[in-house]
Hints:
The complex is a heterodimer.
Chain A: H1 2-22, H2 24-28, H3 32-50, H4 56-79, H5 81-88, E1 92-96, E2 99-100, H6 102-108, H7 112-121, E3 130-135, E4 141-145, E5 156-160, E6 163-164, H8 166-171, H9 176-185, E7 193-198, E8 202-207, E9 216-219
Antiparallel strand pairs in A: 1-2, 1-3, 3-4, 5-6, 5-7, 7-8, 8-9
Helix pairs in contact in A: 1-3, 1-4, 3-4, 4-5
Chain B: H1 9-58, H2 62-83, H3 89-102, H4 111-133
Helix pairs in contact in B: 1-2, 1-4, 2-3, 3-4
Amino acid sequence: MLSSITRTLIIYIVAIAAMRLMGKRQLAELQPSELVTTFLISDVASICIDEPELPLFASVMPILLITALEIFNSTLAWYCPRYARLLFGNPVTVIRNGTVNQGALRHLRITPNDLAESLRGAGVFSPEEVLWGVIESNGSLSIAKKPGEGEDSPMLPILIDRHLYRDNLEALGYDDHWLQQQLGKNGLLSSQVLVFLSNGSDILLIPKKAAPKGGQSCKD
Amino acid sequence: MVPWQNHGRKGACCTKRNLYAVLLLVALFAIVSGSGKAVSYCVGQTEQQLQEAYTLAQAQQYPASAQAYRSAAENARRHSRFLCLFVRRNLLDKINETLATLEFYALPDNPADLAVETARAFSQLEQLEESFIAVF
Lengths: 220, 136
């Protein structure tokens, strides 16, 4: 009994330290790899508490090892966008200008009911109110509502860390040539862009090197 | 403030977190390596004591042999408090039970039983070490 209490205390402290070390990202986003990490840690921790036969170190060590691997993995994903896309996947547009992309829903195996539920969760009761709806790589739905009278259109991502949102580019009536022109005006290559957003009239461009000191916003 | 503005602290934090991860891995490696050596040392010491006790029994020095078996069992029990952090407790219990009975077989009228039980103890010690160093 005493051993069970000691083990619970130790595992509790180690698991909290591990989650804390992995950072808030682990608690907020839960991308596929992070979900696996969290499941593994919780499983290993509960096995250790349930089974006093198991050596304590055999449980503490996997938790700490998974923590270190997760940190390296997320750092690699941060530095290498291709690896991040491979690891996390890409967001998928499911609603464009009030029209539901049924092919994308089928591809994602999301039923219309699931979509309607997510929309209601976001305070939207009709897809017609949505300018752009996207299923994020963590499975959640993000939406940009159509602008009201006198309001500006929401900014849509065009290029984020080498990932081109081609459907947004085309939906705004632009093409690659326009994008290259905008980047050329600012003396940038697409690989040097951290974030490029546009709503058709304005653009927001944050170059990668300038990111640590603040972005650069410009009007079209 | 410009959206997505970074105040230069995130990069440092990211590096610091990686440093912690590296330190964690180094510490884990050191602990695994150190505990591996410790497990091998404890098992090796018990094996040596068992071998000595059995040699005494073969030389028909039964009281000395029983004493040696008892001392091996006591040592193994002492080591168990540390080894239970690294190897399964049931394996430790098994070897401790076997070692605790060995001194009572160190008698002139049952050399075969002593041989069997000593062989069992060696095999259990091997299992104990295997449980720590086995890769799969």
